């Protein structure tokens, strides 16, 4: 079929425009070292929208509860609503991206994230906020899923864990600054301003994606019939190598989302930390997150990812139990148990990057669905963990540390029961 005239015209003009205005014309895809750096940075940027949506408004929970005239627990439910939207959206975005490619679903999803952010900024009550958060998450999940899938498309399977760890350097900027920005923003504006910031930042990123992200998957003739899609998902979920890593990662991540849901109430309401200073706890966690993930990214050049995965899972379980014991005894107040919850949260960078990368090794053409299923399971677990913490009208830090300790122990038990640590032989059927 002949190309239309405008396609020929663009093909002739593109090299000239690229030399004059390189940012405005999509560059041809050649994986040079500079292009590799650019892509990893862009994939990392795509993964920050969910952390920003979670972290930026957390210091405002008490202020939001006062404005709405509801308990803090009613506002905390908006976190669970976001995780629920992530879980649902990823079930759809995976097969769509394997069928139509990565770029179009990604751009549509980012547009939906912008719309949901605006709806959050205008929400008149907690129920409307919950609904808007679901919409926001349905769009935001596209960025997370398709960043992971594109990594699997572009980079060799054995390099995925290292690339994921490098992406975490960008991802870690969110917990460093989002809570600080959210807390200080309350001094000059309403909590609603945070959602306007989210909408604007996503719009700017859409421009970068449009011009600089190549199409890494040409699409396929994969059917979108619900029964066939469900069968494909069950096939991936039944892969022992896949669920052997994803189940422990999900349980480990549950402890982080218990902390995210409950810590603002613990720090601000129980121990009198101001919303402006509350963000420094996230700053410290972000530093730890960056440090652990980047150390592992360097060490993965010479050592197997399974070693770091098993070690981090074990240390997390011990840290969660110590935090529970210290909080239960009331030793040292806030500063008694915070170092151990800090250690637990920092090691998420190791568990998530190594476990996620290893789980994706056996999937080539179905990387979109595998990435979506990973997100569905991870954020489904995060939803349950967040709802469990939000359902408790906590008067002490014990419920938070108890749930974190249980998540750490369950992750450790699952890892050693499912035994994912031995090297797996790639499956031709899965690829």
Overview of this protein structure:
- With 431 residues, this protein is mostly helical.
- It has one domain: Up-down Bundle (Growth Hormone, Chain: A), CATH 1.20.1250.20.
- The protein has 18 helices and no strands.
- Residues 1-11, 20-28 and 423-431 have low confidence and may be disordered.
Low-confidence stretches: 1-11, 20-28, 423-431
Provide the helix percentage. over 70%
CATH third-level topology: Growth Hormone, Chain: A
Number of helices: 18
Which structural traits does this protein have?
single chain, 431 residues, mainly alpha, Growth Hormone, Chain: A, 18 helices, disordered N terminus, disordered C terminus
How are the SSEs placed, and which strands pair?
Layout lengths: L4 H16 L12 H14 L2 H7 L5 H8 L3 H29 L2 H19 L4 H29 L5 H12 L1 H13 L6 H21 L13 H12 L2 H31 L4 H25 L5 H25 L4 H13 L1 H12 L7 H24 L7 H21 L13
Helix pairs in contact: 2-7, 2-8, 2-10, 4-5, 5-6, 5-7, 5-17, 6-7, 6-10, 7-17, 8-13, 8-16, 9-13, 12-15, 12-16, 12-17, 12-18, 13-15, 13-16, 14-15, 14-16, 14-18
């Amino acid at each position: 079929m002949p190309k239309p005239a405008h396609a020929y015209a663009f093909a002739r003009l593109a090299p000239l425009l690229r030399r004059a205005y390189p940012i405005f014309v999509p560059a041809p895809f050649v994986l040079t070292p500079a292009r590799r750096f650019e892509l990893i940075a862009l994939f990392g940027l795509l993964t920050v929208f969910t952390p920003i949506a979670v972290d930026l408004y957390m210091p405002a929970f008490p202020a939001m509860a006062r404005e709405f005239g509801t308990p803090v627990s009613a506002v905390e439910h908006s976190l669970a609503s976001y995780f629920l939207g992530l879980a649902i959206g990823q079930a759809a975005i995976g097969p769509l991206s394997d069928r139509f490619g990565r770029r179009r679903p990604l751009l549509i999803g980012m547009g939906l994230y912008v719309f949901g952010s605006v709806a959050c900024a205008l929400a008149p009550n907690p129920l409307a906020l919950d609904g808007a958060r679901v919409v926001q998450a349905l769009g935001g999940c596209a960025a997370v899923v398709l960043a992971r899938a594109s990594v699997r498309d572009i980079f060799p399977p054995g390099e995925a864990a290292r690339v994921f760890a490098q992406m975490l350097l960008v991802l870690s900027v969110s917990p460093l600054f989002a809570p600080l920005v959210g807390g200080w923003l309350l001094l000059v504006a309403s909590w609603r301003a945070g959602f306007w910031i989210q909408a604007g930042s996503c719009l700017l990123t859409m421009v970068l994606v449009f011009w600089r992200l190549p199409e890494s998957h040409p699409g396929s003739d994969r059917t979108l019939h619900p029964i066939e899609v469900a069968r494909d998902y069950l096939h991936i979920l039944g892969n022992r190598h896949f669920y052997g890593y994803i189940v422990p990662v999900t349980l480990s991540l549950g402890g982080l989302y218990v902390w995210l849901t409950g810590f603002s109430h613990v720090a601000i309401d129980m121990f009198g930390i101001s919303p402006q200073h509350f963000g420094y706890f996230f700053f410290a966690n972000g530093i730890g997150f960056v440090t652990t993930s980047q150390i592992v990214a360097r060490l993965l050049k010479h050592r197997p990812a399974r070693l770091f995965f098993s070690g981090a899972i074990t240390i997390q379980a011990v840290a969660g139990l110590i935090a529970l014991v210290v909080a239960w005894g009331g030793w040292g107040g806030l500063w008694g148990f915070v170092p151990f919850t800090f250690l637990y949260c920092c090691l998420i960078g190791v568990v998530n990057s190594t476990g996620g990368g290893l789980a994706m090794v056996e999937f080539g053409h179905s990387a979109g669905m595998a990435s979506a299923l990973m997100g569905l399971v991870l954020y489904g677990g995060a939803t349950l963990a967040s709802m469990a913490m939000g359902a408790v009208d906590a008067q002490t830090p014990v419920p938070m540390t108890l749930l974190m300790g249980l998540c750490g122990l369950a992750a450790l038990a699952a890892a050693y029961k499912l035994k994912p640590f031995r090297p797996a032989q790639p499956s031709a059927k899965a690829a």
